[in-house]
């Protein structure tokens, strides 16, 4: 009986594996036509200045509405797009969309003050490892006459680990064009802090996992506070990711973390909704 049960387990395991693989193969294939079929869209999530209550930045986040499966999470399809190489075409499209929206946003807001608002775009390591490198994005800005100052690029720690000269060159080219560099999901990766002085980074995005228990856990609070003060001394700004509760925003304000992104303020949303939202002022904790 034990042997039979063992066989059963194996069969169930096999089947689950097969289904998983089949889904991946299907998504990889469907993803090739998703852009042309207009199933992809870019949503924009506001980034708030907790001191002024204004939306000063935003992050572009890709969405896929599959005709049969509905919304597929980027956590699922981005790794597939990276594997198949589809990330290049899709990623370039996201960047162009973000650049267009960033120009519109700044035209709308420029009457009030002269501070430029940036939209940042995630860029996978694979997008750096091509012959064209950063040229695809920079050429687009050049052609359209769009200043880099309205855009940002979000990278993860893993990209910096190998210390590749071509990566360094591309990041430098982005920055020379006025594009800000954000280090995404900070604290979850390798946390070899030495690269922070080698590369010019403008923003550290503190991962949601630290922000989550910043109110209840002294350790997380200490980590975020240390990251914030280190960042300031290195000339970087800090963005807290995944702020969901007012109490978290209060702690962040108290420890000097000025910028925040999360469901408490707004979920990622389509262009039109984002434009309307960005014009409003948001209630934030008052400084004590
Ligand atoms: P990310 O760059 O770290 O983006 C932040 C993620 O946190 C987004 O997930 C966002 O919707 C989510 N988020 C924001 N606020 C909250 C909150 O308060 N609570 C919780 N629980 N989550 C929050 P999303 O949109 O599912 O994207 C997942 C990841 O997919 C992104 O993580 C990024 O790594 C990748 N991704 C998305 N769009 C692109 C893209 O255009 N290109 C590339 N290369 N990667 C992308
Ligand atoms: Mg990001
Ligand atoms: Mg992130
Ligand atoms: Mg992430």
UniProtKB/TrEMBL annotation:
<feature type="domain" description="EAL">
    <location>
        <begin position="24"/>
        <end position="282"/>
    </location>
</feature>
<protein>
    <submittedName>
        <fullName>EAL domain-containing protein</fullName>
    </submittedName>
</protein>
């Amino acid at each position: 009986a034990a042997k039979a049960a063992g066989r059963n387990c194996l069969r169930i395991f096999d089947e689950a594996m097969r289904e998983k693989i089949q889904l991946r193969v299907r998504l990889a294939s469907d993803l090739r036509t998703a852009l042309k079929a207009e199933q992809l869209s870019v949503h924009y999530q506001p980034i708030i200045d907790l001191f002024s209550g204004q939306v000063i930045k935003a992050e572009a986040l890709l969405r896929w509405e599959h005709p049969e499966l509905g919304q597929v999470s980027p956590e699922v399809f981005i790794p597939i797009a990276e594997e198949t190489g589809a990330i290049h075409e899709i990623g370039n499209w996201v960047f162009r969309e973000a650049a267009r929206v960033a120009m519109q946003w700044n035209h709308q807001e420029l009457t009030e003050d002269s501070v430029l608002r940036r939209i940042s775009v995630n860029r996978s390591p694979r997008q750096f490892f091509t012959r064209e490198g950063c040229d695809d994005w920079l050429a687009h800005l050049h052609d359209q006459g769009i200043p880099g100052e309205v855009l940002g690029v979000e990278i993860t720690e893993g990209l910096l680990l190998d210390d590749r000269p071509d990566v360094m060159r591309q990041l430098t080219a982005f920055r020379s064009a006025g594009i800000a560099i954000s280090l995404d999901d900070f604290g979850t990766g390798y946390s070899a802090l030495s690269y922070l002085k080698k590369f010019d980074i403008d923003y550290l995005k503190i991962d949601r996992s630290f922000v989550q228990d910043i109110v209840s856990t002294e350790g997380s609070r200490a980590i975020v506070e240390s990251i914030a003060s280190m960042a300031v001394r290195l000339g970087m700004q800090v963005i807290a990711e995944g702020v969901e509760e007012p109490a978290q925003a209060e702690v962040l304000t108290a420890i000097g973390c000025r910028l925040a992104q999360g469901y408490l303020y707004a979920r990622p949303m389509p262009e039109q909704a984002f434009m309307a939202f960005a014009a409003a002022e948001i209630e934030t904790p008052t400084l004590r």
